[in-house]
Design goal:
alpha/beta, Rossmann fold, six-stranded mixed β-sheet
Amino acid sequence: MAMLIKENKGEARIQPVEPKRRQPSHPTAETVAFDTNMLLNIERFNVDIFREARGMIGRVEFVVPAEVVREMDSLAKKGKILGKEVKIAKMSMESNGAKVVDFGQKSGDLALLKMAPKAIIGTNDKELKDSVRELNGRLLILRRRKFLEFD
């Protein structure tokens, strides 16, 4: 604890001074969750959705439902092109510190809907977007195959 010396009519007094509490320089991080298609678009359209999201939002915590990862693994078995897209998506997830969380749902869409009230959902899937809107959720979509924007 810091001390402050005050002089009053030739008399010195030492008083404790409470340190000022600094406000955090950044608010808490926003959670962003991506669906399968959005992650595969990283390779398809050569777009860094993680960098785009950070640029728009600032501090971001990326979460990918384990159900989405399972969908990608299933798609990877369907051909070389999909396999490469999945591999790049997973590498991008890892290099951007995306957390994989299992929500115990049957599909990636159901897991994302479970997250919708508290997280920003990144998808271009029309049905999923409509469902997220019904829950008053926030959406990130890919425009012109180049950049993200809020919908």
